[in-house]
Structure formats: C-alpha cells, structure tokens
User: Fold this.
Amino acid sequence: MVGRFIVAMVVISCTLFAASTQELDEKAQKKINQLEKPMYNPFVERYLMDEVRDLRIQQQQLRVEMTDKITNSRLDVSDRAMNYVTNTVNNIFFILTAVASLFALFALFGWKSVKDAREQTKVIVQQRVEKVVEHYEKKLRAVEEQMQKRSEQIFENQERINRSNQVHALWRRSQLEDNVQAKVEIYDQILSIEPENVEALTYKADAVLDLGEKEWALNLCNQALELDDQYAYSFWQRACVNAELENVENAIADISQAISLSSTLLNDIESEKSFDPIRKDEKFIAYLESLGEVHNP
Assistant:
C-alpha cells in the first residue's frame, strides 16, 4: 500500500511539473511573438568578439609556456647526451689501452713496441673522439639556432599579447565613454597600436559622423574597406555617411552590400537616424519596398 501511494505521488508531481513547464513555454513564446525589435545590438556583438579575443590571448599564453617547457627539456637531453659521450669515450680509451698493453705483452715486444702500440691507440682514440665531438658540435649548433628562433617567437608572442591587451582595454574604455570627442581619441590610440584595425577605423567614422565631419567619416570608411571589403559594418557606416550627404544611389548600394554580408542589419534600417534625410526620396522608398518583397514574399 505504501509503495502504491509513493508511485501515485510521483506520477502526480510529474504531471504538475509538466503542466507548469508547458505554461511557462507558452508564456515565453507569447512574449517572443510580441517583440518589436531584436533582443541584441552591435554591443552584444562587440562583447562576443571581446570574449573570443580573451580566449585567443589565453591560447597564446599557453603556447608560450609550452614552448618554454619544451626548450628546457631539450637542453636537459643535450646535457645528458654530452655526459654520456664523455663517459663512453673515456671507457673506450681505457679498454683500448688495456688491450694494446696485453697484445704487447703476449707478443713479447720490447718497451719500444709497447710504446708504439700506446701511441697508435692514442691516435685511434683521438680520431674517434674528434668525430664524436664534431658530430655533437653540429647538433649543439642546430639546438642553439632552434633556441634562438624559439626565443624570437616567444618575444614576438609576448609583444603581440601586450598589444592585444592594450587594444582590448581601450575598446572597453570606448564602450563606457559617453563623450564623442573622447571616443575619437580612444580610437586614435587603438590605431596607433594597430594601424590596420578595420573595426577601429569604422567606429571612428561613426563617432566623427556624430561630430558632423561627413567627408572625414567617408574617408575613414573608404580606408576600412580598402583593408577589408568583407566587413559588413564598414559598408553600413558608409551608407550612413552617404545618406547624410544625400547620395541616395551610393547609400542604397552600400546598404545592399552590408545586408548581403550580414542579414541582421536589415532590422536596423527603420531605426537608423542617419537614413532620415533620404527616407522621402522615391528611389529609397522603392528600395525599401523591394526589400519587403524579397523578405516577405
């Protein structure tokens, strides 16, 4: 009876839990259907990129540590090899000397013959030692060259990590900064460290456009696209500049290119204030209608 009671209680609990879970799922789905704007923005993308950069920095640090350990272990192996060669050569020398002495005694040679045998033994041993030493000198030179290359690689990796850390810190400062002029100065610091940083050029163009420097912003966007013509936000930013300059055709072309590279930007057309100067233009209206037909057939 007790067992049946426990089974019944478990079944009732599972049923209630499934019903509550289904009710929560329906509420969540209803909430999602009522959303008017996407739940993400470029700052989320920026955060994800920062996290990927942190992982890449940690991987580079791990690679540097592994390189140090491998280099130290190879040096230990080289030292052991040299000690082994030295001991082996000494043993060979003693053995050859003893054998030469025995041959001299058994052959009943005089003192002069024994001396000749010893001299001949020294010559043979010296020749073998020279070959062994030459062989290991070549190996040691190869190890030294490899160590030099590893040291240079470690130094380059450290410099790269330092630059990445500086750039990462500046990006965080730019996200917290509200003053547009201060943001421009931060982007300039990033570009002084990484002159070909496409993101910094693009975000600087955005800040410069907020200051009303349209031609300057257009020049920065063109520089960014010369470095990387697959970065969607550079096309989007240039479209904003062209829209404020009322270059409708150029703005439409840049919007199309940006959307083809990142379809999520399609949702930002209505909210982008830089497009306000051309929203009443017939070409822009027709373009928006064509986008609606393509994405809502």
In short: Residues 108-112 have pLDDT under 50 and may be disordered. DSSP finds nine helices and no strands in the chain.
